[in-house]
């Protein structure tokens, strides 16, 4: 029996008995430098697993300088597709002396028959492989199947329904009898909701008669979900819309009959992890001190989400909503309510796009209604900045904060700034346009921000010269691939933010500006651009998965930095040598997607590509 490490995919999809069959059935072979192991068109007879050495994958139909399309090192495997397809599409040649384990064709095909997950691995797209990587990282056996795939139907309560003419007294008796906290009211235009709190306020604060009808106090603007939606989506919605209950509709339509109710406490209990109580703690915080305590627990929540294999997009959605609520609650504690409808607090950058999981530098600004008189606004904004620092959001090195008067202004002043930036088109002005394009309202009146962003689209979306200048930043950093298409491997690591994340984010942001796409999330922008026909659906999906992979690798570095408390370790640098074979494979494929995207941007916006 050959002693070989089979702990990584695809062999991790085999049982121990299957891995023993591999160990008993493989041989070890030596190949000299520049030796062709597998030729183009040759039938596949073995799957090759590299023990030592390096192998190049060559497309012989391409010119010599471009024929090297892949690079394999210790732990990588090749040849499986040649067996499945009947012949090899590419040539595999050693670049130095190599030792390879040889898995015979017959044994490989038998394993594919006996282990479907093993076979499926070799037919996967980047999206599927990334999902396998996420599930592989899950600890304690908790994977996407057990956590992310929980549905609303598994957690909803039967609806407690009463007629619109039911009296408050009858409703109180029914709730007491049913041990429930809310009931649905059957109105002429659809269902409404009444909670115990509503009944208490109606009787005590509004001094209504107990014979008053529920029609007078019910809320008919409900947040609704479908029974087949993911429970995790419901938690995100509850956080975003600041509600503790959602109504389940059969078809997700307002006029459809309600079939259930999902309570926040039920969702948190279902996930059965104390980390998820963070959402509840933020919502229930009734002072800055309580908010500080809840806010400090967000890194704990991030670690729990990653450890349990939660898909990154869901994690980003939840944390973006949670960070938004923390900032909004701080605003509510500090700012007099009379200014709430006449102002809008916005976050920008990665926070505005909903793509920052761990708290980083503040990027925020304030929009005021034209004509608003707010004495002492500068002092209050300085206090807000200081409070956000205490909540764990460090000050912005570029001073893009509400404490800086340059990032506070009326709607008219913001429109003038945008017009000035668009006209100047220098580096600083283009950066500020990009920041505003990603702005998202977290407190106050969001309609004020809508007016400002609409002006931005009107000013810039049809200006071809401006778009060309704007897009150029996406090509600013080189893609960390060698001339022959393999990963660069500097000892200090490759900068995943500059080489992978930024080109996608800014390239997609440019296209969103051109098409006046309103969502700020890069993933939502990709979906909108695909729906608009501006991007092929396959390209949009590949870019989304590549961005998710880069973000996850970066997050992994950030979490390690928190655990090790190493301030000098850059969270943006990934050391390729420390990645698993699957991670290297995914990273290489994702960076090629970035390279192709940059080429298409260069052609679309007439840029000099290098």
TrEMBL record:
Keywords: CBS domain. The keyword Transmembrane does not apply. Residues 155-210, 217-277 form the CBS domain. InterPro entries: CBS_dom, CBS_dom_sf, cNMP-bd_dom, cNMP-bd_dom_sf, DUF294_put_nucleoTrafse_sb-bd, GlnD_Uridyltrans_N, MgtE_transporter, RmlC-like_jellyroll. PROSITE patterns: CBS, CNMP_BINDING_3. It comes from the Bacteria. This is Cyclic nucleotide-binding/CBS domain-containing protein. Residues 10-111 form the Cyclic nucleotide-binding domain.
């Amino acid at each position: 029996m050959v002693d070989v490490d089979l702990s990584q995919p695809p062999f991790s999809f085999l049982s121990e008995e299957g891995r023993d069959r591999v160990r008993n059935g493989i041989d070890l072979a030596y190949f000299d430098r520049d030796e062709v192991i597998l030729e183009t068109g040759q039938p596949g007879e073995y799957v090759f697993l590299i023990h030592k050495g390096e192998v190049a994958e060559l497309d012989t139909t391409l010119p010599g300088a471009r024929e090297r399309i892949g690079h394999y090192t210790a732990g990588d495997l090749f040849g499986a597709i040649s067996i499945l397809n009947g012949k090899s599409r590419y040539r595999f040649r050693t670049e130095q002396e190599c030792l390879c384990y040889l898995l015979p064709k017959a044994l490989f095909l038998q394993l594919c028959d006996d282990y479907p997950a093993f076979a499926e691995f070799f037919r996967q797209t980047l999206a599927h492989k990334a999902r396998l990587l996420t599930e592989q990282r899950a600890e304690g056996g908790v994977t996407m199947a057990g956590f992310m795939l929980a549905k609303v139907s598994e957690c909803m309560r039967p609806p407690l329904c009463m007629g619109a003419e039911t009296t408050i007294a009858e409703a109180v008796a029914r709730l007491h009898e049913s041990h429930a906290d809310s009931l649905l009211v059957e109105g002429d235009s659809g269902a409404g909701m009444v909670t115990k709190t509503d009944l208490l306020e109606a009787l005590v604060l509004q001094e209504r008669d107990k014979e008053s009808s529920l029609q007078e106090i019910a809320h008919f603007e409900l947040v609704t979900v479908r029974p087949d939606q993911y429970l995790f989506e419901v938690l995100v919605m509850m956080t975003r819309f600041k509600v503790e209950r959602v109504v389940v509709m059969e078809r997700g339509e307002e006029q459809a009959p309600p079939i259930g109710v999902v309570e926040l406490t039920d969702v948190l209990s279902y996930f059965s992890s104390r980390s998820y109580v963070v959402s509840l703690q933020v919502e229930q915080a009734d002072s800055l001190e309580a908010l500080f305590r809840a806010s400090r627990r967000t890194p704990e929540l991030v670690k729990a989400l990653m450890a349990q294999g939660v898909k990154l997009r869901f994690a980003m959605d939840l944390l973006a909503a949670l960070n938004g609520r923390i900032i909004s609650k701080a605003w509510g504690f500090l700012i007099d309510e009379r200014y709430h409808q006449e102002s809008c607090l916005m976050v920008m950058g990665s926070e505005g796009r909903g793509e920052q999981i761990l708290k980083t530098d503040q990027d925020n600004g304030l929009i005021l209604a034209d004509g608003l008189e707010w004495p002492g606004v500068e002092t209050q904004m300085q206090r807000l900045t200081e409070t956000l620092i205490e909540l764990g959001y460090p000050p912005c090195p570029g001073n893009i904060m509400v404490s800086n008067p340059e990032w506070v202004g009326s709607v008219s002043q913001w429109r003038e700034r945008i017009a000035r930036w668009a006209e100047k088109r220098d580096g600083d002005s283009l950066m500020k346009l990009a920041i505003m394009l990603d702005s998202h309202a977290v407190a106050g009146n969001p309609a004020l921000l809508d007016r400002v962003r609409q002006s931005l689209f009107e000013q810039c979306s049809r200006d071809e010269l401006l778009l060309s200048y704007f897009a150029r930043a996406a090509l600013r950093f080189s893609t960390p691939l060698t001339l022959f298409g393999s990963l660069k491997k500097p000892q200090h690591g490759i900068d995943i933010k500059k080489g992978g994340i930024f080109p996608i984010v800014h390239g997609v942001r440019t296209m969103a500006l051109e098409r006046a796409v309103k969502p700020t999330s890069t993933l939502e922008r990709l979906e909108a651009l695909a729906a608009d026909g501006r991007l092929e659906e396959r390209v949009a999906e590949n870019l989304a998965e590549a961005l998710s992979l880069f973000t996850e690798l970066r997050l992994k570095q950030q979490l390690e930095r928190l655990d090790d408390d190493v301030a000098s370790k850059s969270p943006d640098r990934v050391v390729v040598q420390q990645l698993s074979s699957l991670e290297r494979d995914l990273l290489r494929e994702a960076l090629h997607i970035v390279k192709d995207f940059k080429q298409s941007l260069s052609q679309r916006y007439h840029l000099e590509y290098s």
